[in-house]
Amino acid sequence: MLVELAHQVGDYLHDVFVAQLDGWVILGFVAQFMFTMRFVVQWIASEKAQRSVIPFAFWTFSLGGGTLLLIYALYRRDPVFIAGQALSTFIYIRNLQFALRERRAARAVT
């Protein structure tokens, strides 16, 4: 029974991670990596400041990863994923606008 279960799990993992591997899956992994990096840069910035900080790179990775994930979701025709990433992409763009405006204002003061 355990051997059969191990074979079924192995077959499943092979199907998911090897048999389906194509350019779109690679794009999905790149997108997910970029999306994950936003949390890494936010964590590092917060650790350095010893307070919660959201750096510009957080929004850059959010927009890059979110846009690539939206493209991937559109290709996969996943309505839940499409709806979530489409809305999020607009939020990332707006937050980047705020961050850019703040950077320009800070440069004008100095």
UniProtKB/TrEMBL annotation:
An example Gene Ontology biological process: lipid A biosynthetic process
Transmembrane segments: 23-41, 53-75, 81-100
Alphabetically ordered keywords of this record: Membrane, Transmembrane, Transmembrane helix
Coiled-coil residues: none
Gene3D superfamilies: 1.20.1280.290
A Pfam family this chain is assigned to: LAB_N
InterPro entries: Lipid_A_biosynth_N, UCP028440_lipidA_biosyn
Residues in Lipid A biosynthesis N-terminal domain copies: 27-98
Protein name: Lipid A biosynthesis N-terminal domain-containing protein
GO-annotated molecular function: lipid-A-disaccharide synthase activity
Gene Ontology CC: membrane
Taxonomic lineage from the root: Bacteria, Pseudomonadati, Pseudomonadota, Alphaproteobacteria, Hyphomicrobiales
